[in-house]
Amino acid sequence: MTASRAGDLDKDLVERIRKKGKEINENLNESAGTPRRLMSKGREGSGTLYDISPFEDVPLGEARRELAEFGDDEDVPRPIER
User: Fold this and answer.
1) Reduced 3-state DSSP string for 40-52
2) How many CB atoms lie within 10 A of CB 38?
3) Position 2 in a domain
């Protein structure tokens, strides 16, 4: 039996839902890593479930080094080259 129209359930659909739930869970746990590490270093911040903004008044170079230690430096803004 396959899911041919809305409302039909079969083992394949249930398995796909289970796998997607596992994938979402893994992504959320991974996403929580950087804020957790920043908080462990004394950073503060603000945010909601979908938008977290840690902050600390530090030079950009120091912030880059710290994030590089975490392996999360790909989102750090790069200086504008003139």
Assistant:
1) HCCCEEEEECCEE
2) 21
3) no
